[in-house]
Amino acid sequence: MQSLPIFVRARGLPVILVGEGEAGEAKRRLLERAGAVIVDEAADAKLAFVAIEEPDAIAVRLHARGLLLNVADRPDLCDFTLPAIVDRDPVMIAIGTGGASAGLAAALRQRLEALLPHGLGRLARALFDARSALRSYYPDAGDRRRALAVMLAPGGALDPLIAHADPKIAPEDHEAPAASLERILLTSPDPDELTLRAARLLALADRIYHPADAPAAILDRARADAARIMGSAPAVPPPGLSVELIVIP
Q1: Is CATH 3.40.1010.10 what the domain over 180-247 is classified as, yes or no?
Q2: 138/6 Cα distance (integer angstroms)
Q3: Cis status of the peptide bond prior to 5, with omega within 30 of 0
Q4: Terminus-to-terminus CA distance in the chain, angstroms?
Q5: Hey, what CATH class is 1-82 in?
Q6: Domain limits of the chain?
Q7: Torsions phi, psi of 244, nearest 5?
Q8: What's the pLDDT tens digit per position in 127-178?
Q9: pTM of the predicted protein model
């Protein structure tokens, strides 16, 4: 991973825009849509966008002031790049290629636009409104996370890839799964060769037991907050989902 994906709250944020032509107008529309306050080069700001034919000199000036900079069609001058966006407010999916190919990012966006229900934002808002009820019913954060995983799993009551006209979150109807242990046999260090089931288990696991030679690329497919434990899984696993990786030579 060469970049750290983040979402910046731009509403009311001063942002420098030095732009011209179609590229400059595209940046202006995006910033206005996000609620940013567009200012000129001399203003005080932390972010800047440059979309002109000869950007090198102005990029040097803005970098010297410590601004984070995006320069259209010049990834070598960029501190950050703009992704292709799938907007299901408040759900937002950003697709970036590190400046390698805007066309590839756009193609992936089009695929996801067709895949994701337009009402996905309603589900997100319903989950937000249910936070107090979920915390009350599942005081333990691990139990709460596991119960939500069951609700949001493929075919689950709140499967996000299925349109929900009026999603209802009733915590009492969705018990957190008990302690379980799953084993994944790895015959390749390539994460693209994981089965769909193995990839899903890694994404849901609370902890990963693994040997010292477990491929880092495979471990990276697990949640960032999942515990990584070197060694074999115990006979009686702790609460939640434990996954043991077994490397086959």
Answers
A1: yes
A2: 29
A3: no
A4: 27
A5: alpha beta
A6: 1-82, 83-116, 120-173, 180-247
A7: -110, 125
A8: 999 999 999 988 988 888 888 888 888 888 899 999 988 888 887 776 666 7
A9: 0.69
